[in-house]
């Protein structure tokens, strides 16, 4: 059994996989860039998430809590949230707010996203990330385990 943390996005969903005791297994992303329609993008994301679920059999998934910023992008992200909730309907799901993730990792909840990404790259230099979405998913997993340590 594993834990999968997701940085959900319609364009590029990052994911990181951890063992239940916090050991890092893998990071990757689901890329839907291009001129695909929204339904085809959602289908691509769903197909890849189903593969992850089948291969890694998670007992928990972590998702960055949705937030409202720009109507169009917020709507797209919540569509991906819905797909994720549906695919992992029988898996425990925990949502963490981005500010909480940053605070758990760096002790500063108000640092900028770019600073957080630099912090992760410096703290974990042996892990190769292909993009910022993978970093964000990894940060979500690290924050979850740091939060458990603090309980």
Topology:
Blueprint: E1 2-7, E2 12-19, E3 24-31, H1 38-56, E4 58-64, H2 71-87, E5 92-96, H3 98-106, H4 113-123, H5 132-150
Parallel strand pairs: 1-4, 4-5
Antiparallel strand pairs: 1-2, 2-3
Helix pairs in contact: 1-2, 3-5, 4-5
In the predicted model, the low-confidence regions spanning at least 5 consecutive residues are: none
Q: What is the CATH C-level name?
A: Alpha Beta
**Class from helix and strand fractions:** alpha/beta
**Into which percentage range does the β-strand content fall?**
15-25%
CATH superfamily: Ribonuclease H-like superfamily/Ribonuclease H
Oligomer: single chain
Describe the strand arrangement of the main beta sheet, using strand numbers: 3-2-1-4-5
The total tally of domains equals 1
What is the fold-level CATH name, i.e. the topology? Nucleotidyltransferase, domain 5
Question: What's this entry about, in short?
Answer:
The chain is an alpha/beta fold and 151 residues long. Helices cover 50% and strands 23% of the residues. A hairpin with a 4-residue loop joins strand 1 and strand 2.
What does this structure look like?
This protein is an alpha/beta fold and 151 residues long. The protein has a single domain, classed as Nucleotidyltransferase, domain 5, CATH 3.30.420.10. The chain is built from 5 helices and 5 strands, in the order βββαβαβααα. The protein has helices spanning 38-56, 71-87, 98-106, 113-123, 132-150, and strands spanning 2-7, 12-19, 24-31, 58-64, 92-96. Strands 3-2-1-4-5 form a 5-stranded mixed β-sheet.
């Amino acid at each position: 059994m594993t834990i999968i943390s997701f940085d959900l996005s319609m364009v590029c969903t990052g994911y990181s996989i951890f063992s239940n005791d916090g050991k890092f297994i893998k990071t990757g992303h689901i890329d839907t860039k291009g001129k695909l329609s929204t339904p085809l993008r959602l289908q691509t994301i769903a197909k890849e998430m189903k593969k992850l679920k089948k291969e890694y059999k998670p007992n928990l998934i972590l998702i960055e809590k949705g937030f409202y910023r720009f109507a169009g992008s917020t709507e797209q992200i919540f569509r991906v949230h819905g797909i994720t909730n549906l695919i992992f309907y029988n898996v425990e799901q925990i949502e963490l707010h981005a500010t909480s993730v940053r605070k758990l990792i760096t002790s500063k909840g108000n640092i900028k996203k770019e600073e957080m990404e630099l912090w992760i790259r410096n703290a974990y230099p042996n892990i190769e990330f292909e993009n910022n979405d993978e970093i964000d998913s990894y940060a979500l997993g690290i924050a979850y385990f740091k939060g458990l340590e603090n309980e």
